[in-house]
Amino acid sequence: MSEVSIFDKIIAKEIPADIVYEDDWVLAFNDINPQAPVHVLVIPKAKIPGFSSLADQEAVQVGEFIKRISQVANKLGLDPDGYRVVFNQGKHGQQSVNYIHAHILGGKQLSWPPG
Ligand code: AMP
């Protein structure tokens, strides 16, 4: 069994989060340490440890998750100007929470490449 992460506790409503969207598939909430004017995390309700584990998931799980990321970004009004979706994976990706999460970053001109 994988470790209980902070996002497990947010899903279980054991600790609070600033929730911007929720349905049967996902929870989306504001990042506690925002790196852009809009910085929202989207996590699936069924736990997946990280991006590399998506390879083992049923296509419907992956599809509904990715679809919700797009829907949340649209609901946040980011589509006209654009935004970035980031998955950090593992040590080199600087993943700090072992529960898959998509970062939606927007609300300003973002730079490229990342560090
Ligand atoms: P990562 O480095 O990709 O694993 O990103 C983890 C993200 O979770 C970071 O951007 C943190 O600021 C964010 N974070 C950690 N704890 C919380 C929390 N309790 N509520 C909201 N965001 C959090």
Task: Characterize the structure shown.
With 115 residues, this protein is of the alpha+beta class. The chain has a single domain, classed as HIT-like (HIT family, subunit A, 2-Layer Sandwich), CATH 3.30.428. Helix content is 20%, strand content 22%. It is built from two helices and five strands. The chain has helices at 6-11, 59-75; strands at residues 19-22, 26-30, 38-44, 83-86, 102-106. The chain has a five-stranded antiparallel β-sheet, covered by helices on one side. It is globular and about 35 Å long. The protein binds adenosine monophosphate.
Number of helices: 2
Which sequence of SSEs, written as H and E, runs from N to C? HEEEHEE
Classified in CATH, the superfamily is HIT-like
CATH architectural designation: 2-Layer Sandwich
What portion of residues belong to β-strands? 15-25%
Using the CA coordinates, give the radius of gyration: 14 Å
Q: Using the coordinates above, name the CATH class.
A: Alpha Beta
User: Under CATH, the topology is which?
Assistant: HIT family, subunit A
Strand order of the largest sheet: 1-2-3-5-4
Q: Name the assembly state.
A: single chain
The rounded distance between the terminal residues' Cα atoms is 33 Å
Strand elements, count: 5
Helix percent reads 10-25%
Distinct compounds present = adenosine monophosphate
Average pLDDT works out at 97
Overall structural class, as computed from helix and strand content, comes to alpha+beta
How many individual domains?
1
> What can be said about the biggest beta sheet?
5 strands, antiparallel
